[in-house]
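Why run this: before we spend reagent on co-expression, it is cheaper to look at a predicted model of the complex and decide which construct boundaries make sense. The entries below are exactly what would go into the expression plan.
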Amino acid sequence: MRVVLADDAGLFREALATALTSAGIEVVGQAGDVDGLIELVRSHAPDLAIVDVRMPPTGTTEGLEAAARIRSETPSVAVLILSHVVETRHVMQLLRDAPEGIGYLLKDRVSNLAEFLDAVRRVGAGGSVVDPEVVARLLGRARPHGPLDELTPRERDVLALVAEGRSNLAIGEHLGLTEKTIEGHVRIILSKLGLEPSPDAHRRVLAVLTYLREG
Amino acid sequence: MNWSWPWVVIDALPGLAFLILGQVAWARRPGNRIGPLMVATGFAWFVGTAAVAIDPVASAIFSAFQGYYDPLLAWLVLAYPTGRLIDRRSRLFVGTFFGLLLARTVFRFAVFEPFQSYDFGNPADIERYIANQTIRVDGELAFRVAMTVLALVLLGLVVARLRRETNLGRRVAAPILVGGLAVATGIVVELIATLIDARSVEVRAFLYDATNYITSLSGAIVAVGFVVGLRQSRIARGNVADLVLELGASPGPAQLRDVLARALRDPSLEVVYAVPERGIFVDAAGRIVALPEGRPDRAVTRLERDGQAIAALIHEPALAEQVELVRSVAAATRLALENERLQAEVRAQLEEVRASRARIVDAGDAERRRVERDLHDGAQQRLVTLALALQMSQARAGGAADPELVALLSKAGRELDLALGELRELARGIHPTLLAESGLGAAIESLADRSPVPVSVTVGEGRFDAGIEATAYFVVAEALTNVAKYAAASKVCVDVERRDDSLHVRIRDDGAGGADASRGSGLRGLADRVAAVGGVLTVESPAGGGTTITAEIPCA
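The model came back. Tokens follow.
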């Protein structure tokens, strides 16, 4: 897999490039700002761009705008956003605009390299990835009594993993269950929540997150 | 000239009128230059009368000094009623007029017969005499023309002044106009008489007589008009006593201004108050006012006590000519002014305190934002980079045979994870990143996400000043914390909406109520914070009836 990195903190960028390279992921370019990133994406046509939310000049949400541009100009390039805060609004926006090949992770996730590399590979392969803490925040939200309370603890675990963008097979591996069992859980969960079952994994993520955020 | 008795009386009239009435005016208003000017005008008049003296030398001398009555009268007209020529134009005019007369005096000394000696037996002297006569006639004509021009300029100045100073009052304006006309008519008619000199002796005699009658009578009328007009401003001064009664014991600031405006007949009058220790002037509301000094359309009269400014009146420039009136009105209302000044000073201090409080809050916010950014850009970046390095080390060590090292590294990794999480929460508590990045909606939703009590959030679109957004955010944050701690509520509604020029923030729960804004530092601090940006915080919390906290924050 070929990736480009964009982060204005050079030290972190270098460290991340080293980690990715030693995991067999080819880093074809690094940029410190949005223009450099767009340039790299155009010239190298990578599989994935890993982009920090905060970049010059204002250091606020330049990364998100860059992601939107990349997804609309070169839809074949997946984008993994690294954020410094747990926040749900931007995630929803990203997923709505580009329901596949998009990821939103807390920057801190790099402290578990195996999980981080897994996320990089999933997004690079066109999957959707949502940070577990963002999902936990949504799932843990105080809300009036409703369908979520009908879920068993196991079903809640499965729901969280679905919302993180994992496939049934991956969820099964994670929980030590078979893919078939997970399929069954997912069907029951969706029907309890009143959601349409969808064969499209990305639509499933979006539907579940929307439910959690607005339900 | 016709030296009949009535003529002698008529000729003496203006001179006497100016002399006598000038003395009266001088005695009544010693500080005003109109009195002495009138007396001088009277003397100047009699110089003209003396020019008809029998003795040729005396007659010639008086003739040389004849005509200063005109510039003096012009001076009076332009300087009335204060006696001061206020604008450069009129000073220039009066100066030019005197200059012209002085030139004529010199000219007359040079060419008049008694100052020349001729030997009429000598043909050269006869030649010289004839040449001198020609120069004399031409010169006199030239002076007449020049004076006529000045007379027309004077009329222009008078009309311009009356148009500009519409509030002089008829009795003050009348002598100015009549005086101006008298000077001008006299000079113009004299020029006409000179020009038709050769044509008809009778017409010329008639015109000279007519001129003399007009000048004499109008001069006398003007003298009376000046004194009556001066009385007019005395009457206005008399009204000052009534002012004090009208003001009563303690007038409001608007009333004080209105009464002064009426007494001074200037509806545009403004009263401003001195704040001596800061060297500034403020209006009744305490706002700083710059005195319009050097502006042609406004004038300033400073009012002082013991050499220290207490107030200033900003008024029409015309009033500047009535300095005495303005000062006496101000003196009569001094107590009220002083009282008002103290109040304005307090208001100004309050305004200053309010502004400095808002600045302190702003500075605090800015500092919090800076610390938050520093944490994210500095410590967080470094810790994340460190975590990566640790991961790499772990991966390497994984192959080594030292299980203790692997365990140590993974323990360090977990600690680092916790540190990162704590750092993120710390930064968020100092200042929410989302607020600056994405506005109130996103930031309040994020608060709602964390609330243990279900929250429904309605936030209108639009961004506001950082200080306003931060205030609204902290109100919601503190209110939600209180709901979680004390209210035992089952749900909370947060509404943020812009209405006209203010941002309405309302947090309503269905909990136990009974919250008291005056107790507990949380609500008290919130009220202070809202007040610092000029807003109002209200808390409604009947026991058992839920709590509604409303903040209205101006955001114009």
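DSSP finds ten helices and six strands in chain A. The interface with chain B takes residues 9, 11-12, 15-16, 18-19, 22, 54, 59-61, 84-90, 107-108, 110-113, 137-138, 141-144 of chain A (CB under 8 Å). Bring this page to Monday's planning discussion.
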